[in-house]
Amino acid sequence: MRAIAYQEFGSADVLQPTDLPTPHIGPDTLLVKVKAAGVNPVDYKIRQGYLEGLLDVRFPVVPGWDVAGVVEQPGLDTPEFQAGDEILAYARADLVSGGTLAEYAAVPVRTAAHKPAGLSFEQAAALPLAGLTAFQSVRRSGLGASSTVLIHGAAGGVGAFGAQLAVHAGATVVGTASPGNHDFLAGLGVRPIDYHGDLVSAARRIAPDGFDVILDFAGVGAMDTVPDLLKTGGNVTSILDARARDDFGGQYVWVRPDSHDLAELAGLVASGTINVEIAQTFDLEHAADAHRAVESGHTRGKVVVTV
């Protein structure tokens, strides 16, 4: 099968088209013909070797965890799916090796959900990792219709999903972003503020009593302002800084594959409740350019590779 793989850690230049055997599947795994695969920041961080101590890697590595496609062959014990079913998945495995930038992918059944007819394969491939990260963070934060919420990085790949989910829950949502993304956030029902300058004063002008929930999808500096912005008894949740848990009694979220969560999230997109913004698409042979686009940090929305 055609695939994009790398044999050593390095820049996007190590990503090369190659031919590999079609993946072997176990009894609880689906062989999926890939239609589209999402690219996420974690993909280039693994490729650069930054997560070597956290995740086991076996070369050659086919990168990618997000996938949308068609079941080619169901495993022996996968009664939820049949050949020909359209699926999406956050197909993270314990070993980083056989990913989704390929013609075929082995997808653990616990990570997969049926793709609603209203989703394109590109939308479906853009959704799993970022969407689930936001979905699980919002749920664990405990926010509700009466909550006042501050979202750091609200226009980013995860933040845009988190902002929409918080608005859908009925919360009053304030989001940090660069000025160029303020109209985008306003269109989602979010009060935008610039993360440059005096963030605390800008946030306090909107929420003088502070925030019930702070969601950190940006990392840099977000925890430093928590003492000034979080209400007593409030909740802070971060996907990037363990101080949310260790210093403030909140949550540190490392997204989990979950077929039920993914099915619920996909349903929200299919119904039009949540929008998936796709910044760019690339074909498989130009997957290295897709990695470069994500690595630049200048895309708004998701980068997708079509196969």
From TrEMBL:
Residues 10-305 form the Enoyl reductase (ER) domain. Signal peptide: none annotated. CDD domains: MDR_like_2. Pfam families: ADH_N (PF08240), ADH_zinc_N_2 (PF13602). GO terms for molecular function: oxidoreductase activity. This is NADPH2:quinone reductase. The lineage of its organism: Bacteria, Bacillati, Actinomycetota, Actinomycetes, Propionibacteriales.
